[in-house]
Amino acid sequence: QVQLVESGGGLVHPGGSLRLSCAASGSIFSINAMGWYRQAPGKQRELVASTANGASTNYADSVKGRFTISRDNAKNTVYLQMNSLKPEDTAVYYCYASIRRTPAPWSAGDYWGQGTQVTVSS
């Protein structure tokens, strides 16, 4: 089994910062992409940021210059540093990882965390 456990959400004032963490554990042979999605009430889930092996990164236009994704491959952990937060960043944030559980290519799958609430409000 594979588990993704998130932490770091909470309530913050506009302009503030938060750092989300997501650690993958369990039967893991290798991890390809890791990243973060978010879903606000009444809206579709959207990609926030992703990284492949910590090298290339991809960001939603709405968070470029404010959010930074990073990854610690030794710890199977991905982080999202969120600065200059705005009320429109309020959402449940979900981490995901593309994981291969064995050397066999067919063992690859996408896994999701349980979600962590981020609320930006004065």
What is the strand content? Answer: over 45%
Helix content: under 10%
Describe the largest sheet. Answer: 7 strands, mixed
Give the helix/strand class.
Answer: mainly beta
What ranges have pLDDT less than 50 throughout 5 or more consecutive residues? none
Please tell me how large the radius of gyration is: 14 Å
Topology order in helix (H) and strand (E) letters: EEEEEEEEEEE
Distance between the termini: 40 Å
Number of helices: 0
Number of strands: 11
Tell me, rounded to a whole number, the average pLDDT. Answer: 95
Global geometry: elongated
In short:
The protein is built from no helices and eleven strands.
Helix-strand blueprint:
Layout: E1 2-7, E2 10-12, E3 18-26, E4 30-39, E5 46-52, E6 56-59, E7 67-72, E8 77-82, E9 91-100, E10 108-112, E11 116-120
Parallel strand pairs: 2-11
Antiparallel strand pairs: 1-3, 3-8, 4-5, 4-9, 5-6, 7-8, 9-10, 9-11
Question: How would you describe this structure in keywords?
Answer:
122 residues, mainly beta, seven-stranded mixed sheet, 11 strands
3D architecture notes:
With about 120 residues, the chain is mostly beta strands. Helices cover about 0% and strands about 60% of the residues. The strands form two sheets. Strands 2, 4, 5, 6, 9, 10 and 11 form a seven-stranded mixed beta sheet that branches. Strands 1-3-8-7 form a four-stranded antiparallel beta sheet, with no helix packed on it. β5 and β6 form a beta hairpin. The mean pLDDT is about 95.
